[in-house]
Structure formats: structure tokens, C-alpha cells
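Dear Dr. L.,

I hope this message finds you well. Following up on our conversation about the binding site, I have prepared a predicted three-dimensional model of the protein together with thymidine-5'-diphospho-beta-D-xylose. For your records, I am including the exact sequence and ligand specification that went into the calculation, followed by the C-alpha cells. Please feel free to forward this to your student if that is useful.
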Amino acid sequence: MRIIVTGGAGFIGSAVCRLLIRKGNCKVLNLDKLTYAADLRSLNSISENPNYSFTKEDICNGPQIAKLFETFQPTAVIHLAAESHVDRSIDGPAEFMKTNIFGTFSLLEAARAYFYGLNAVERSQFRFVHVSTDEVFGTLGSTDLFKENTPYAPNSPYAASKASSDHLVRAWHHTYELPVIICNCTNNYGPFQFPEKLIPLMIINSLLGKKLPIYGTGQNVRDWLHVEDHALALFTILAKGVVGESYNIGSRNERSNLDVARRIFGLVQDRFPISGFSNFEEASEFIADRPGHDWRYAIDPSKLAKTLDWQPVYDFETGLMSTVNWYIENRDWWEPIVETKYPGNRLGTG
Ligand code: NAD
Ligand code: TDX
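The resulting structure of the complex is given below.
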């Protein structure tokens, strides 16, 4: 296999690159613009591997992307490049529209031109795997689950831009017969996640003795999946998924934000006394809610489990513990980010 991974220097993309190289028998071209969210250090373990290569490129740059397809001759694309943070999309949606919508369009066009140049056998093997989110389905009440046929109802600018990209991918299959598969995954956590997201933020703030900012009441629910389980699901879908279909990815791990933050504080406290705070109630602070904050996400992953035989490896407690330990043991990864790239006041006021 020869696979172009877009956004391979990001949190999930780097896990996908590491997995593909570990599996062997596969050449990977990581195509990434290197935005604030990228970190090539996440790829240190594979950067010297002869099967791995990196190119700094913007998916919006159609002519350059087309050239890369011609020179690399991929058998598949796994498309992860995106602006990914909901709060940033609320503060400034333009970049989300550009990368997530126009960038996906530009990538699809390059893939289509390249695909039309392949012979019949090569065409039958080619895949375009589009990595998307459960946020395209909107929000749930206290019951029910997102299924593959749940109607789209995106609420944030980020979710709307991802929903748009899903529709483009679907249309390029319907109209041009590009062999696409769409994946909609729940919230990911694990090593190398940028500290703006809930779980790394709560771990890092606990380690630094800073307040833990909880939006609104903290009762909003997210459905958590370890990033390595997501990478494995994408690999499974690439290998066995049915062209033109979509797959929901998740592991039935619903938690309220307050419960997640409290558990993280407890796990850090088990290892070190946390300076300034003797308990979670002192450490946490309820702050203004996110505008339009979705109440609950929860994925029904049964199609993926039943038809492609995928099962997650991590249960949430084990995954969370190993993630907390990873941030404790890899301060040299996140400290420079917190000091330079993300000193933002969302890291808390403590
Ligand atoms: P991330 O923000 O950590 O990484 C995104 C990567 O894309 C970065 O390396 C960045 O440099 C790159 N990128 C951004 N714009 C680009 C452009 N114009 N051209 C080329 N590269 C560009 O994101 P993530 O959390 O790893 O998410 C990856 C994908 O998975 C996204 O498509 C996201 O929507 C989706 N997703 C994320 C989650 C989650 O919980 N993080 C859940 C479901 C789906
Ligand atoms: O400081 C915080 N306090 C807080 O209460 C932060 C950063 C978040 N939250 C809440 C908001 C959400 O309900 O925690 C929840 C998770 O927030 P994020 O980590 O920002 O994730 P979310 O908005 O759910 O989106 C994530 O999952 C779906 C990813 O960022 C998306 O890329 C993915 O598509």
C-alpha cells in the first residue's frame, strides 16, 4: 500500500502514521501544512523509517496536491487535515471554511484527476477515507445514539464545516464514482493531543496547579475513544470497508465533562500533591458556557463492530490512566507548547 495521510502531524494523524508504519508493508506520505496544532515531534519514532516521508503542503493548494499524487502514486488517501477546535471555530470561523470545506474540495479534485488516470485494477483498489466527526449529527437528549443514518444537524461553525466536507465527499462518489468511505468518530483522547482540548487541558492544569475551567454546568456529555483505537478503526475501514458507505466509530464511553475533570484531578493527585488545591471542588471553576454548546454526543458503533469486526482495545479508565501518565512523563513535549504556542487564558486563571 502507498498511503497519503493528510494532517499527519496532528493528534490523530500522527497516531495513524505511527500505526501504518508499525504495521509494515506500507509507504506513507504525510502531507501537512503545519498549523499551530501540528507537531513533528509526535512522529519522532518513525521519522527515520524509509517507508515514511513528510511534505509541508496546504490541502487548499490544488496544483501542488495534484503533483504530489502524480509523484507518490498512492493506493489510498486518509484525509484528516482540518481545523479541529470548536472554540476556535466560534472565535474565527473563516479558516475552518477554507481548510475543512475548500481544502477537502481541492483534495477531492486532485484525487479524482489521479483516479481517472489509473487502470481498472488500480481503480478497484484505490480508496479515499474521509475522517469526520460525530458533531455533524448535532446534539442528543439524554437517550438515543447517533447512527449512520441519523440526519445531519451541525451546530457549531466547526461541525458545519465538517458536515459540508462529508457532503462533498459523498457527492464525489455519487457523481464521479470516486471510491470514498466516510468515518464519523466520537471525541478522541490520548498522547500528543494539543493542550486546548478538554482532557490534556485538565491534565496539564492539574500538573501546573492551575484552575480547571468547566464550561456551563459541566453536565454536557461526550463519548470518549482512545486515539489508538480510532487509528485501528481507520485501518480496518481502509482494508475492509464498503465503498460509498459511512461508519460511526466509538466505544460507548459516555462521561459528563465534570466527571472526566474530577477523575483526571484524582489520577494526578494519586501521583503528586497538587499545589494550591486540596480537592477537586477547590481546583475546578465553572466558567461561561460555550455558545451553542452541544449537550450530548453518543455513537452507536455496532455497524463497524458487526460488519468489519472492529473492537476497541482500551477501556476508558485504563486509557485515561495511561494518558495521564504519558503527560506526566512527557513534560518536554507539552511544556514548550504551553510556554510559547498556547499560553492562552483558556488554560485557566489559577
Ligand atoms: P489536529 O488539530 O490535532 O490536527 C490537524 C492537522 O491538520 C494538523 O497537523 C494541521 O497542521 C493539519 N492541517 C490543518 N489545516 C491544514 C491544511 N490546510 N493543509 C494541510 N494540513 C492542514 O486535529 P485532530 O484532533 O488530530 O483531528 C484530525 C481529524 O479528525 C480532523 O479532520 C477532525 O475533524 C477529525 N476528528 C477529530 C476528533 C477529535 O476528538 N480530535 C474526533 C472526530 C474526528
Ligand atoms: O476548558 C474546557 N472546559 C470544558 O468544559 C474545554 C476545552 C472544554 N470543555 C468542554 C466542552 C465540551 O463539552 O469539554 C467538552 C470537550 O471539549 P473539547 O475538548 O473542545 O472537544 P469537543 O468540542 O467535544 O470536540 C472534540 O470532539 C469532536 C474535537 O475537538 C473535535 O475535533 C471532534 O470532532
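In brief: Residues 2-191+224-253+297-314 form a domain with the Rossmann fold fold (CATH 3.40.50.720).

With kind regards,
A. P.
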